[in-house]
């Protein structure tokens, strides 16, 4: 059997939604809703592994020669690549399918949660009432402009909209759709980034024993809980501006029996804690949904609340490098324009080193590394595929 | 009470990108993909039924052919139809929302990127 035959035989099926681990606050899933997720997870996997790579083929075989023949030179900028790609029918179809799939995934999740919106809120209350002292909401907190200007990754209503009192609908929709969008690559509880982080720290800094950990922009706390579970003696606090996300995240934590965590509705630009009060401040895929003013405020606040010798880490997109091809730079920006992630572009171009130094972190103490995402069930992913994420940060 | 069918198919805030030179063609593609999804769902449901029937040997073809739903069952089916149609015609509902809503709900990402990168 030659390599081609092996490749042809390796069918990489995504996990079946029926068998995904569901925590106590998770929505009830009907037969057809489950089937819809199975279809969409497969569709996402197909687009990612079969359709999307075709853009590079079309670029090399068709678009580049066409551009060279027309202009007499090679591409100089990602903008030229974009203009040329947008005229190509393969790119058009590939992009139209991806956008439609993203919208269908949000639709499938929201139709599931909205039909049970009352019982979902009751379920969250059931858990939250068991430990009211570890959930602090602030109805007067202003939702930042950057969250209101667009519904990120096409989730209608965004993270903060409340349709009824005590609502958790969009948080539950986000939880359900994350698994579908990522084809299960982040594990059954979608917490693979948090698990990967604690693994990395344990391996590289076994002496680091944080007693107080702050997770900023924690959302529903998917990646907050691994920090608490792996540091059972630490006090872990998640802050976020969205009440639905915190209600749902707290209920999820209680249902999973994680006790050393609490959630507070607060803005990371004005962290409601004293100077030097945390050993570790973390964010996971949060900064790219803010703005330049916000992240400049955030890094100053993180520096302020970190104790001397404390650690700041951000799981976040790496910046473009000089070696990165113009085509790759263009493709990295797809979500910027087409999945309502307008700040991605800024994150891809921003010099994180300067950003951290501007808050007071020293050059010698900066970090940047990759983490292999932890998947609690290798059957979920298959074929040894493992997603990786970029992390940057600094010791204070 | 919320209208969960209408809400489920809402447009996300921000201008929707279109990739084909003719937006109408893209809307038809989007509707087709939604139908494809629902066909897959039906196929999975049929598969469940067939497997259960194989095990239990309780239903005949005639019983399926002449089945009359109770008023309650019929009502539930009507709700399913309304939900189904709104689901596959979501892109049309969203185009209408884009027309109806204020301009600030349809700002393009270039413009927002510029703003968020500045302030």
Automatic annotation (TrEMBL), chain A:
Transmembrane segments: none annotated. Keywords: Methyltransferase, Transferase. The keyword ATP-binding does not apply. Gene3D superfamilies: Vaccinia Virus protein VP39 (3.40.50.150). One of its GO terms (molecular function) is methyltransferase activity. GO terms for biological process: methylation. It comes from the Bacteria. Pfam families: Methyltransf_25. CDD domains: AdoMet_MTases. Residues 213-310 form the Methyltransferase domain. This is Methyltransferase domain-containing protein. It comes from Spirosoma endbachense.
TrEMBL record, chain B:
This is Uncharacterized protein. It comes from Spirosoma endbachense.
């Amino acid at each position: 059997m030659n390599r081609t035959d092996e490749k042809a035989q390796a069918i990489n099926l995504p996990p079946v939604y029926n068998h995904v681990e569901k925590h106590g606050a998770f929505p009830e899933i009907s037969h057809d809703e489950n089937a819809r997720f199975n279809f969409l997870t497969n569709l996402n996997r197909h687009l990612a592994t079969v359709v999307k790579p075709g853009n590079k083929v079309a670029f090399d075989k068709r678009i580049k020669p066409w551009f060279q023949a027309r202009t007499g030179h090679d591409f100089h900028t990602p903008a030229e690549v974009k203009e040329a790609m947008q005229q190509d029918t393969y790119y058009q179809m590939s992009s139209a399918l991806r956008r439609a799939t993203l919208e269908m995934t949000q639709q499938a999740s929201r139709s599931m949660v909205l039909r049970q919106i009352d019982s979902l809120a009751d379920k969250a209350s059931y858990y939250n009432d068991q430990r009211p002292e570890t959930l602090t909401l602030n109805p007067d907190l202003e939702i930042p402009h950057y969250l209101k200007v667009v519904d990120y990754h096409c989730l209608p209503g965004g993270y903060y909209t409340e349709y009824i009192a005590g609502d958790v609908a969009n948080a539950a929709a986000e939880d359900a759709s994350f698994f579908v969008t990522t084809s299960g690559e982040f594990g059954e509880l979608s917490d693979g980034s948090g698990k990967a982080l604690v693994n990395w720290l344990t391996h590289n800094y076994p002496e680091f024993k944080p007693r107080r950990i702050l997770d900023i922009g924690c959302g529903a706390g998917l990646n907050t809980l691994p920090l608490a579970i792996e540091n059972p003696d630490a006090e872990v606090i998640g802050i976020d501006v969205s009440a639905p996300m915190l209600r749902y995240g707290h209920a999820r934590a209680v249902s999973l029996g994680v006790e050393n965590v609490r959630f507070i509705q607060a803005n990371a630009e004005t962290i409601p804690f004293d100077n030097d009060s945390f050993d570790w401040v973390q964010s996971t895929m949060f900064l790219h949904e803010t703005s330049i003013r916000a992240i400049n405020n955030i890094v100053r606040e993180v520096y302020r609340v970190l104790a001397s010798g404390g650690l700041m880490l951000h799981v976040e997109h790496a910046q473009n490098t000089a070696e990165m091809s113009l085509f790759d730079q263009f493709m990295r920006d797809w979500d910027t324009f087409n999945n309502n992630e307008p700040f991605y572009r800024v994150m891809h171009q921003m010099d994180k080193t300067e950003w951290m130094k501007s808050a007071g972190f020293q050059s010698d103490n900066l970090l940047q590394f990759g983490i292999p995402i932890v998947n609690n069930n290798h059957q979920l992913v298959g074929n040894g595929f493992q997603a990786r994420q970029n992390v940057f940060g600094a010791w204070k | 009470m919320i209208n969960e069918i209408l809400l489920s198919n809402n447009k996300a805030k921000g201008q929707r990108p279109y990739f084909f030179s003719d937006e109408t063609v893209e809307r038809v593609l989007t509707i087709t993909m939604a139908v494809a999804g629902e066909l897959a769902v039906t196929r999975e449901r049929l598969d469940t039924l067939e497997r259960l029937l194989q095990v239990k040997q309780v239903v005949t073809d005639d019983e399926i052919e002449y089945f009359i739903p109770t008023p309650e069952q019929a009502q539930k089916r009507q709700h399913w139809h309304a939900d189904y149609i709104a689901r596959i015609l979501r892109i049309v509902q969203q185009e209408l929302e884009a027309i109806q809503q204020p301009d600030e709900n349809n700002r393009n990402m270039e413009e927002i990127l510029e703003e968020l990168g500045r302030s």
